[in-house]
Amino acid sequence: MEAFNCHPGVPKPGDLIEIFRPAYQHWALYLGDGYVISVTPVDEGPADMLSSARSVFNGKAWVRKQLLKDLVGNDAYRINNKYDNKYRPLPVGEIIWRAKCSIDQEVAYDVLRNNCEHFVTKLRYGKAVSGQVNQAIDAVATVGVVTIAAGAISLLAWLGSRSRERDD
Question: How far is Cα 108 from Cα 68, in angstroms, rounded to an integer?
């Protein structure tokens, strides 16, 4: 991971904020005046891996408005509107309106299909996407292809050796 400042500039309303937790990235959307919105475990206390794991297992999360500095804590973060080159952001007023309508709502949570990055990209672009999930799926697919290829090579080598044994 690249090194990032803890204060990477001044976010604008509607910006995506990527927060670097010890083992994953958490995503929020900047509302303005120092506040962000994000999905958090229903019974979250301090941000830690255990509290994030709760949402994974119970399938629920809570949409919270918090001060960016409180959500980030001691972790690094950056403004990351990484999908702007692929999807057109909705008008800022609509992004903020949609976000504010979600505050204090309980939402479904699924780490692969409806996580914190999906939530904020849906607000910004009208389309839920998650690069974290795509990277994980790509990694699993690559391992699968390599495993299948290795198995095929082993099978061909074994069949070749059997064929030579019969010829002898």
Answer: 23
Active site residue 7: no
Please, what is the Cα angle at 57 between 137 and 136, to 5 degrees? 10
Q: How far is CA 164 from CA 109, 151, 168, in A?
A: 56, 20, 6
CA proximity to 27, closest of 133, 104, 137, 100: 133
Give 123-154 as a DSSP string: HHHSS---HHHHHHHHHHHHHHHHHHHHHHHH
Residues 89-113 pLDDT 10s:
999 999 999 999 999 999 999 888 8
Of 7, 26, 101, 118, which residue is the catalytic one?
A: 26
Active-site residue (options: 7, 101, 116, 118):
116
pTM (predicted TM-score): 0.70
Asked if 26 is an active-site residue, the reply is yes
